[in-house]
Amino acid sequence: MIGDKWTVMIVLTLVDQPRRFNEIKRINGGISQQMLSRTLSALERDGMLTRTVNPTIPPQVEYALTHLGQSLAGPINELGAWARSHILEIERNRLAFDEAKAKV
Amino acid sequence: MIGDKWTVMIVLTLVDQPRRFNEIKRINGGISQQMLSRTLSALERDGMLTRTVNPTIPPQVEYALTHLGQSLAGPINELGAWARSHILEIERNRLAFDEAKAKV
């Protein structure tokens, strides 16, 4: 569950505030409607977030991290910080790897 | 890259010692030959691990984390520690969620 890319992205998306389905989808441009629904239900089932239907017209569905969900944000932010501080090194490595491969 | 489940699993597999392809595959029972090859090449291209062909007969290929690869182990271990300390709570939540759903 936690090694899954969209789980990581959705927890980060909700860490600051509750959001509605389409907001989450827009923020995570690459995710499909189906994948977002599946990941949100899995996170709800795990107790990582709550799903609230607000009685507006039309009704609005809002997703918010629970305490358990918030507690995952720490390790995920560490992973994000690692990525940000190493991305240039990784990009240099990829360039060097591709150049070496092109010479073979 | 780092949000990918198999990247996380393979870095953890190599964190203690270099290993050969089949060892890595056996330790990560669920991974296919193709997915393991693809993930190992991506990690090699990123500079996260080295691939060494030992001149034995038959030649043996060994994979080892680089300094960059080792540095990812910290945040990944944090994620693993989070999972281990919350797995029971998540399983209770899943049980409660399924029971509630069965009543609807």
From TrEMBL, chains A, B:
Keyword Transcription recorded: yes
Domain HTH hxlR-type span(s) in chain numbering: 1-91
UniProt keyword terms in alphabetical order: DNA-binding, Transcription, Transcription regulation
Pfam families, per database record: HxlR
Top-level taxon: Bacteria
PANTHER family: TRANSCRIPTIONAL REGULATOR, MARR FAMILY (PTHR33204), TRANSCRIPTIONAL REGULATORY PROTEIN (PTHR33204:SF39)
Name of protein: Helix-turn-helix transcriptional regulator
Native source species: Sphingomonas morindae
